[in-house]
Amino acid sequence: MASDVIVIGSGIVGASTTFHLAAAGISVTLIEKDHPAAGPTGKSSAVSHLFYTEPELSQLAQRGCEWLKRLPAIGDGPAVFHEVGMLWCTGEENAEEWAAAARRIHDQEGGEIFVITPEDLAARAPDFVMDDIAIGIWEPAYGYADPYEATNGFVNAARARGAIIRQQSRVGEIETAGGRVAG
After folding, report:
1. Do 78 and 130 have their domain in common?
2. What is the pLDDT of residues 106-156, one digit of tens each?
3. Is the pTM of this model over 0.90?
4. Number of domains the chain is built from
5. Can you give the CATH number for the domain in which 14 is found?
6. Domain range spanning residue 62?
7. How far apart are CA 6 and CA 148, in angstroms?
8. Are strands 164-166 and 176-177 parallel, antiparallel or unpaired?
9. GO MF terms on file (predicted)?
10. What is the overall mean pLDDT for the chain?
11. What is the rounded distance in angstroms from the CA atom of residue 43 to the CA atom of residue 2?
12. N or C end of the chain: which has fewer CB within 10 A?
C-alpha cells in the first residue's frame, strides 16, 4: 500500500508528525527500526515547563504541554503528563529579565506562572536560605511526561486515524528521481 508521506523514526517527533498528518487525512506510513521511543526519546527526562526568557520557546513549550495533557483523550491511553510545580529562584543579575519573562508568559501567553517577592518566598518557605535571592518564579504547571507512553499515545492515535505503522523495519536507502523521493 502506497502512502503520500513516509515518516522515518518513531521518537516523539516522528510519532507526533505521523499523528498530525493522519489526523489531517493524509495517507502516512511510520517506519521504525525498533519500537516507538526506543532511541533518545525513551531516555528523556521529559520535563515540560513554560518558563523561558525567549517568547518563541515559551510559546512552543506551552503548545507542547497542552498536547501532552490532551494526549490521553486522543490516544485512548493513560495520563502521560504529571504536574509537580517548580520554583525558579535567581539573584539580582537575572531578576529583571526573569520577572519580565514571567509577566509576559502570564499576561500575554496565558501561562500559569507568577513572580514571587523574596518576602513572600520567605513567608512560604521559612527554611529557605534567602541570601542573594532577588525573586522567585512559581510555575505550578511545571511537570514531566512519560516519554514512552507519550510516544506510544501518538502512535496509537495515528494508527486509529489510518496511519500504517511498521516496526522492526529498516530503511536501507531513499531513492530519488528528478529531485524527488521515488522509493
Report:
1. yes
2. 999 999 999 999 999 999 889 989 899 999 999 999 999 999 999 999 999
3. no
4. 2
5. 3.50.50.60
6. 47-145
7. 22
8. unpaired
9. oxidoreductase activity
10. 93
11. 32
12. N
